[in-house]
Design brief:
The chain is of the alpha/beta class and 500 residues long. It is built from 17 helices and twelve strands. The strands form three sheets. Strands 3-2-4-5-6 form a five-stranded parallel beta sheet, sandwiched between helices. A five-stranded antiparallel beta sheet has the order 8-7-12-11-10. A two-stranded antiparallel sheet has the order 1-9. It is elongated, with a radius of gyration of 37 Å.
Length: 500
């Protein structure tokens, strides 16, 4: 890739069918004319044949009765306006149709205009007070000009209501997406970007009347001089010498940089057949701002987690420096704790938290004299009593840090026994925290199958039999059951081979 110009072929991973471009031009306003007088329908068509509002003509659909209108409305919803006669198959057929539209169909956006040639049967004030209509006209007063004015006013009202409803939908989309963005798992950023892009497409497709569809687009992130496509649809080409820092808009393309403070961290590129609706574009800018804030939050959380991991590793290395046998032992404990936690049905995130915390299970040995830790033979009673203090020492070292709660439980309680005969507090059964019960098993197992200054390594079979024998005494029977299941699946053989 040359420094003069970079040409990127932008494709979404796993995307086999791009979204199609729908660019049919602005569709006409759908208008329903309900009247049992065919001449009235014909005159209405003639008077409105050259009508245009907002660059859109009319599409008139006629119904000769309220019953026929009901059927049309049920099978073809989405009318912007209905011109309704009152007296048809019954004297109040039109009024009952109004009630059907508002109450049964629950359509409160369609504009309803009553037209009557017999005002005595449906007095204006009574109709206005008792029915949810938008205008009342006597046919004798409805000249071509007044019809034009009435229809234009009604369509303007419908357009404004639709815009408000689209804004509501857009804000609901933004607000609904916010919790998922801020609470997204830290290790699945690809899903985060994909979800954001899906929400962006939703914002651009607001409302049933929207005709703008995204043909191609992507959400990209910058790192140094590279552009990485995180989510996208279709195919697109982009030629850029540098990442865009200013918003770029054209009739068929939209580029919005993603910024955190003064840093441009990525970009949103959309290719569309028609200009984006101003409302959709405004909501899109709001949403991309929200995305940047969420991304910054995720980055901070990721940095905090990395800082926590680094702190654990530093403490673990301190323990390794104290005990020559500890280093590889710790790494095996991490691996075994993760496997055993998963085997017990614990979710992957929690299992990983247990595994990382297990690195500190023997951190308290920092406070134990070298002469005891490295003694080649069995410990005497006094020495054993002193080495048991490493559990309390470990708990004391990390007791005040809330993010080390699991590590504290493991360090303090991994020598407790199921029957209550362990140390330092003689906890029994489920009084012992679960991660400590898991580490208790894997710690003893690893000690058995590996050499120590005071003992030779046991065989895998001997060690597993010993763990099984101590179920219900030293160990939680459920943990032992999962442990034995892993052994039966051959999960320990490879590990044992690599340690001898």
């Amino acid at each position: 890739m040359t420094s003069e110009k970079r040409t990127l072929q932008l494709k979404s991973k796993g995307q086999t069918t791009p979204l199609t471009v729908e660019n049919p031009g602005q569709p006409p306003w759908p208008v329903l004319v309900v009247d049992d007088d065919a001449d009235v329908i014909t005159i209405t068509r003639l008077n409105l044949r050259h009508f245009s509002f907002g660059g859109r003509s009319l599409s008139l659909v006629a119904a000769s009765s309220a019953a026929q209108a009901r059927q049309i409305l049920q099978t073809s919803p989405g009318f912007a306006l209905a011109l309704i006669d009152v007296v048809m198959e019954q004297d109040d057929a039109g009024l009952q149709l109004v009630r059907f539209i508002r109450e049964t169909l629950c359509d409160h956006k369609i504009r309803l205009i009553i037209r009557t040639g017999q005002p005595g049967l449906a007095p204006e004030r009574y109709v206005i007070d008792h029915f949810d209509i938008d205008d009342y006209k006597e046919k004798s007063d409805l000249s071509a000009q007044k019809l034009y004015t009435t229809v234009r006013s009604a369509l303007k009202s419908y357009r404004d209501l639709t815009t408000i409803d689209m804004a509501r939908q857009g804000l609901e989309t933004i607000l609904g997406a916010a919790p998922r963005m801020y609470l997204h798992p830290l290790d699945s950023f690809e899903e985060f970007y994909s979800g954001v892009f899906t929400q962006i497409l939703g914002l651009c497709h607001l409302g049933a009347q929207s005709t703008v569809r995204i043909a191609n687009g992507f959400l990209a992130m910058f790192h140094k001089n590279e552009i990485t496509i995180k989510a996208g649809v279709g195919e697109a080409r982009l030629e850029k010498t540098t990442p865009p820092v200013q918003e770029s808009l054209s009739a068929t393309e939209t580029v919005i940089p993603l910024r955190i403070r003064n840093e441009t961290i990525g970009m949103l590129y959309l290719e569309h057949g028609q200009p984006l609706d101003p409302l959709a574009l405004h909501l899109l800018r709001i949403f991309t701002g929200q995305v940047c804030v969420a991304l910054q939050s995720l980055r901070v959380q990721q940095e905090l987690r990395q800082a926590h991991t680094t702190a654990v590793q530093m403490l673990s290395e301190a323990a390794e420096a104290k005990d020559a046998n500890t280093g590889e032992h710790i790494q095996r404990i991490v691996l075994l704790t993760r496997r055993l936690s998963l085997a017990m049905g614990i979710d992957a995130e929690t299992a990983e938290r247990y595994a990382q915390a297990s690195q500190l299970h023997d951190i308290g040995k920092i406070g134990i004299p070298d002469r005891i830790l490295n003694k080649p033979g069995p410990l005497d009673q006094t020495e054993f009593a002193e080495i048991t203090t490493h559990a309390r020492i470990g708990g004391m070292i990390i007791k005040d840090e809330k993010n080390f709660g699991v590590a504290r439980d493991i360090a303090l309680y991994h020598h407790e026994k199921w029957d209550g005969s362990g140390y330092p507090e003689g906890l029994r059964g489920e009084e012992i925290p679960l991660p400590a019960r898991i580490v208790s098993v894997v710690d003893v197992f690893d000690a058995l199958v590996n050499c120590r200054p005071y003992k030779a390594a046991w065989s895998l079979t001997e060690a597993v039999n010993e763990i099984r024998r101590l179920a219900g005494r030293s160990f939680d029977p459920r943990v032992v059951e999962a442990f034995c299941r892993l052994h039966d699946e051959g999960m320990f053989a490879e590990l044992i081979q690599t340690t001898h």
